[in-house]
Write a structure and sequence with these properties.
heterodimer, A: about 250 residues, alpha+beta, Ubiquitin-like (UB roll), Fumarate Reductase Iron-sulfur Protein, Chain B, domain 2, 5-stranded mixed sheet, two-stranded antiparallel sheet, 8 helices, B: about 600 residues, FAD/NAD(P)-binding domain, Flavocytochrome C3, Chain A, domain 1, 2 domains, 6-stranded antiparallel sheet, 5-stranded parallel sheet, 15 helices, about 35% helix
C-alpha cells in the first residue's frame, strides 16, 4: 500500500466525552497520492493502531459531502480552523495536528456542537416570508447584478470557521458572529426578504449584537468560501445604526 | 384526527419539501436526520433544476420535458407520475424563486436557463454551479421558520433504525438511534415519510456524501417493503477520482460548452494545451453529432469506457479523459461555473480555466429505490417515500437536473398524501404499545450483540471489499458470471460480518458502531442490486450487458420488484408491467 515508503504522521487531540479530559494520540500512515485529512482518518478507522503500536479507536469527527459544501468537517488543522476535506496532506507540515474547534462544546474527539449558529439564524429570521407554497407566479425580477451580490452571501456553509477565529466570539460577549450577520445582509437585500428587515436589525442589537465586532477581520481570512464577511458587517452595522436612530424617534 | 403527527426521515430536498407542505397544511412534523439538515447531500447537486419554462423562444413544453425524461429513461418509468412532475416543474421553479434562491438572471432580470444532457432545449435553471446547495438552503430556511413557530420538531443527529409495525403490518411510528447518547427510542406517528436519499456507500467510493448508505431503505426492505429497479445505477461520466471519494464534475461544464477528448495517439505525454486540434479525438462529438457532449449520462459513460479500455486511449495510459473548458472565456466560466471549478482547483490543484480537467466515470445515483405507487405510498401502509430513495421518476437512466425536481415534486406529493392518509386512519388502540416495546427491544438486542461480538473482522475493511467488487462488476458493464461471483462475495462478507470486532465499545457518539449497523443493511441491499442485475438479461439505460446488448421490451419492459424472504435471508423477485399509456416505446438512439 505504501508508495515510496513515505509515511504521514497524524497527531490527534482526543476526548472521550464532553466532560472528560483531552489527550493526544499519534498515528503513522502509509502515504498515498491525493490524500487529505479525511482519507487519513478513514485509513486510521480501517486500522486503528497508534504509532507506538497501541490498539486505539477510530476517530469521531463530523463529515458528509467531502467537497467543502456541507460545512460539516471544520476543525483545527495545524492550528488553523479549516475544512478537513480540502486539507490535502501534501500541502501540510508534519506531524499534521488535528484538534476540535476550540469555541464550541466538544462532543467527542473532533466532533463539536455548532447548533448555536442555527439558533442565531432562527433569531435573525433568516428566511424570505413567502405567503405559501401554492402557485403565485414568478418571484420579483432581479438584475444580474443583484444576483451577483446575493449569491456569494448565500454560499455560506455554516462551518463556523469565522466564529472560531473571531476574538470577540467568546463567553463574555455572546457575540453573534460574522456568519449570521452576513445572512442578515442577504435577506435584508432580497426584495421580499426586506419585509422582516427591522426584526432582523433588532435581533442584532443589545447583548452579543453587531456592536461587539472588533474589526479584527480574522473572519474573512478564515472563510473557506471567500464570503465578503467584513463588507457585510460594515453594511449591516450601518443598517443597525440607522434603525436605532429611527427607533428613538418612533417610540 | 385534526392535526396529524407525521414523521419525516431525511432532511434533504425531498424531506424538507414534504415537511413544508405538511406544516403549511396544519400538520405537525418530527423531522429526523443523521446530520443537521442544512448539511444534507442535496447540497452537492451542482448544475441545476429542469423545468420547461420556455423562456428562450425555443418552443419548449412540459410535454417535451416529459418525452425527454421517458426517452432518456429508456421507457422503464411508469409514465403518468412523470408527466405530472414535468407539468408541476415550472411552478416549482417560481416558488423557489419566490423563496429567494439566487438563480442566475438574464439581462432583463428573468431566470436564465442552460442546456443539460439528453435534451436539445435550454431547460435548466441554475444558481451558479451550486444549485442544490441554494435550493436546500431555501427550503431549510422555510423549515426553520416553521420550527420557530413550533410546527416542526427537529431530531438532528438521529438515525432511523426501523419502522414500528402493528399486528396488521401497518406502520405506527419509527425506531431511531440518538447518535450521541446511543439511546434507542420509538416515536409514534400517524404516517411516516422516508426521504433518505442515495446509496453510494454500497459502491465504496462514489460522488455521494458519507451519509448516503441506503441503510433506511434496506431496513424497510428487510421489514417487508418492496424495493424496485435496484439494478439501475447511474455512473456519472465526469467525476474527479480521489482517495476518499469521487467528486462530481457537473454536467453543466458540458452544458456551457465543455468538450470531452483524448489525444489520438496512445500514451501521448505532451501538455494537453500543446496538442493541436488535429491530434485530438472529440469522440462524443464524432459518435453523436446531434447531441455531442450532451448525450445522456449512461451513453457518455459507456463511450468513455470504450475509449479508455477498448481503444486504450486513456490519458497517459490511465483511466482518464480530458474535459476541456479552456476555450471559454474566464468571465463566463466564473459567472456560471465558479463553484465546480473551485472544487477542481482545491482538490486537484490545477486551474480548469487554464488546463483541461482529467475526469473519469464514477457511481453517482440510484434510479432504483423503494417501490411506491403513483401517490408515493410504499407497499407498507402508512409509509411514504420521496426523493432518491424511491424509484419512480427516472426509469433506467436519470437525465441531468431532473433529480432536484423529482425530489421537490415527490416531497410535495408525499406530504399532503401522508396527511390525508393520517386523517383517514382510525386511532390505533392500546395493543399497539406492545409493537413499540418489541421493536425497541429488537433493536437494542442487535446493538448489544454487535457490542459484545468478539471476532477479528474490521467493519471498514469489509466495506472496502464490498465497494471494490460492486464498482468492478455491478456498474458500467455487467456480465452474468461476474454478477454471480459478486453475490457469492457479498454472502461471504455477510458471514464475516458475524465475526466483527468493534475496536470502539463506548456508548457515546460511537461513529464506527453506527457505521457497522449501516454496513449490515448495505450488504443486504447490495444483493438486491447484484441479483436484480443478473436477472435482467437485456441492456436498457444504465444497465448494460454485452451478452445481451439490445433492449428487450417483450421480456423486460417491466419493473423489478425485490422483496426480502426472511427465512432464506435473501431477496426474491417479481416483475410488474410498466404503464406506457402516454408515449409508445420507441428505440432509444441519440
Amino acid at each position: 500500500m505504501a508508495q515510496n515508503g513515505k509515511t504521514v504522521i497524524i497527531k490527534v487531540k482526543r476526548q472521550a466525552s464532553p466532560d472528560s479530559n483531552p489527550y493526544w494520540e499519534e498515528f503513522s500512515l502509509p502515504w498515498k497520492p491525493g490524500m487529505n485529512v479525511i482519507s487519513a482518518m478513514m485509513d486510521i478507522a480501517a486500522n486503528p493502531v497508534t504509532r507506538e503500536g497501541k490498539p486505539s479507536r477510530p476517530i469521531t469527527y463530523d463529515s458528509n459531502c467531502l467537497e467543502e459544501v456541507c460545512g460539516s468537517c471544520a476543525m483545527r488543522i495545524n492550528g488553523r480552523a479549516r475544512m478537513a476535506c480540502s486539507a490535502l496532506i501534501d500541502n501540510l507540515n508534519q506531524p499534521v495536528t488535528l484538534e476540535p474547534l476550540s469555541k464550541f462544546p466538544v462532543i467527542r474527539d473532533l466532533a463539536v456542537d455548532r447548533s448555536v449558529l442555527f439558533e442565531n439564524l432562527k433569531r435573525a429570521k433568516a428566511w424570505v416570508p413567502i405567503d405559501g407554497t401554492y402557485d403565485l407566479g414568478p418571484g420579483p425580477r432581479q438584475t444580474p447584478r443583484q444576483q451577483e451580490q446575493a449569491y456569494p452571501l448565500s454560499r455560506c456553509i455554516s462551518c463556523c470557521c469565522c466564529m472560531e477565529v473571531c476574538p470577540q466570539f467568546n463567553d463574555k460577549t455572546n457575540f453573534v458572529g460574522a456568519a449570521t450577520i452576513a445572512q442578515v445582509r442577504l435577506f435584508n437585500t432580497h426584495p421580499t426578504g426586506a419585509a422582516l428587515k427591522e426584526d432582523r436589525l433588532h435581533a442584532l442589537m443589545g447583548d452579543g449584537g453587531i456592536q461587539e465586532c472588533g474589526y479584527a477581520q480574522n473572519c474573512v481570512e478564515a472563510c473557506p468560501k471567500d464570503i465578503p464577511l467584513t463588507d457585510a458587517i460594515s453594511e449591516v452595522s450601518g443598517q443597525v445604526m440607522k434603525q436605532a436612530i429611527k427607533d428613538i424617534f418612533t417610540r | 384526527m385534526a392535526n396529524p403527527k407525521i414523521v419525516v426521515v431525511g432532511g434533504g430536498l425531498a424531506g424538507l419539501s414534504a415537511t413544508i407542505k405538511i406544516a403549511e397544511g396544519g400538520g405537525n412534523v418530527d423531522l429526523f436526520s443523521v446530520v443537521p439538515v442544512k448539511r444534507s447531500h442535496s447540497v452537492c447537486a451542482q448544475g441545476g433544476i429542469n423545468a420547461a419554462k420556455n423562456l428562450k423562444g425555443e418552443g419548449d413544453s412540459t410535454w417535451q420535458h416529459f418525452d425527454d425524461t421517458i426517452y432518456g429513461g429508456d421507457f422503464l418509468a411508469n409514465q403518468p407520475p412523470v408527466k405530472d412532475m414535468c407539468e408541476a416543474a415550472p411552478a416549482i421553479i417560481d416558488l423557489l424563486d419566490r423563496m429567494g434562491v439566487p438563480f442566475n438572471r438574464t439581462p432583463e432580470g428573468l431566470l436564465d436557463f442552460r442546456r443539460f444532457g439528453g435534451t436539445l432545449y435550454h431547460r435548466t435553471a441554475f444558481a451558479g454551479a451550486t444549485t442544490g446547495q441554494q435550493l436546500l438552503y431555501a427550503l431549510d430556511e422555510q423549515v426553520r421558520r416553521y420550527e420557530s413557530e413550533g410546527r416542526v420538531n427537529k431530531f438532528e443527529t438521529w438515525e432511523f433504525l426501523s419502522a414500528v409495525l402493528d399486528a396488521q403490518g401497518v406502520c405506527r411510528g419509527i425506531c431511531a438511534l440518538d447518535l450521541r447518547s446511543m439511546e434507542v427510542r420509538t416515536f409514534p406517528a400517524d404516517a411516516v415519510i422516508i426521504a433518505t436519499g442515495g446509496i453510494g456507500a454500497i459502491f465504496g467510493k462514489s460522488t455521494n456524501s458519507v451519509v448516503c448508505t441506503g441503510s433506511a431503505q434496506s431496513a424497510l426492505y428487510q421489514q417487508g417493503a418492496y424495493y424496485a429497479n435496484g439494478e439501475f445505477i447511474q455512473v456519472h461520466p465526469t467525476s474527479i477520482p480521489g482517495d476518499d471519494k469521487l467528486r462530481l464534475m457537473s454536467e453543466s461544464a458540458r452544458g456551457e460548452g465543455g468538450r470531452v477528448w483524448v489525444p489520438k495517439t496512445a500514451g501521448d505525454k505532451r501538455d494537453p494545451k500543446s496538442i493541436p486540434e488535429s491530434e485530438r479525438w472529440y469522440f462524443l462529438e464524432e459518435w453523436y453529432p446531434k447531441y455531442g457532449n450532451l448525450v445522456p449520462r449512461d451513453v457518455a459513460t459507456r463511450a468513455i469506457h470504450k475509449v479508455v479500455y477498448e481503444h486504450g486511449l486513456g490519458i497517459d495510459g490511465q483511466p482518464m479523459v480530458y474535459l476541456d473548458l479552456t476555450h471559454i472565456d474566464r468571465a463566463t466560466l466564473d459567472r456560471k461555473l465558479e463553484g465546480i471549478l473551485e472544487i477542481y482547483e482545491k482538490f486537484v490543484g490545477d486551474d480548469p480555466r487554464d488546463t483541461p480537467m482529467k475526469i473519469f466515470p464514477g457511481m453517482h445515483y440510484t434510479m432504483g429505490g423503494l417501490w411506491v405507487d403513483f401517490k408515493q405510498s410504499t407497499s407498507i401502509p402508512g409509509i411514504f417515500a420521496c426523493g432518491e430513495c424511491e424509484y419512480s421518476y427516472h426509469g433506467a437512466n436519470r437525465l441531468g437536473a431532473n433529480s432536484l425536481v423529482s425530489c421537490i415534486y415527490g416531497g410535495f406529493v408525499s406530504g399532503p398524501q401522508a396527511v390525508s392518509y393520517a386523517k383517514n386512519q382510525t386511532k390505533s388502540d392500546t395493543s399497539v404499545n406492545g409493537a413499540f416495546d418489541s421493536e425497541r427491544k429488537r433493536q437494542q438486542e442487535i446493538n448489544a450483540r454487535l457490542m459484545s461480538s468478539e471476532g477479528s473482522e474490521n467493519p471498514f475493511r469489509i466495506w472496502r471489499e464490498l465497494g471494490e467488487i460492486m464498482t468492478k462488476d455491478v456498474t458500467v458493464i455487467r456480465y452474468n458470471a461476474a454478477l454471480a461471483k459478486t453475490d457469492e462475495k457479498i454472502v461471504e462478507l455477510l458471514e464475516r460480518y458475524q465475526h466483527i470486532n468493534l475496536s470502539d465499545k463506548e456508548m457515546w457518539a460511537n461513529t464506527s458502531f453506527v457505521f457497522t449497523r449501516q454496513l449490515y443493511n448495505m450488504l443486504q441491499l447490495a444483493r438486491v442490486i447484484a441479483q436484480g442485475a443478473a436477472l435482467r438479461n437485456e441492456s436498457r439505460g444504465a444497465h448494460y450487458k454485452p451478452e445481451f446488448p439490445e433492449r428487450d421490451d417483450a421480456n423486460f419492459l417491466k419493473t423489478t420488484k425485490a422483496y426480502f424472504a426472511p427465512d432464506a435471508d435473501e431477496p426474491r423477485f417479481e416483475f410488474e408491467p410498466v404503464d406506457t399509456s402516454l408515449i409508445k416505446p420507441r428505440p432509444r438512439k441519440y
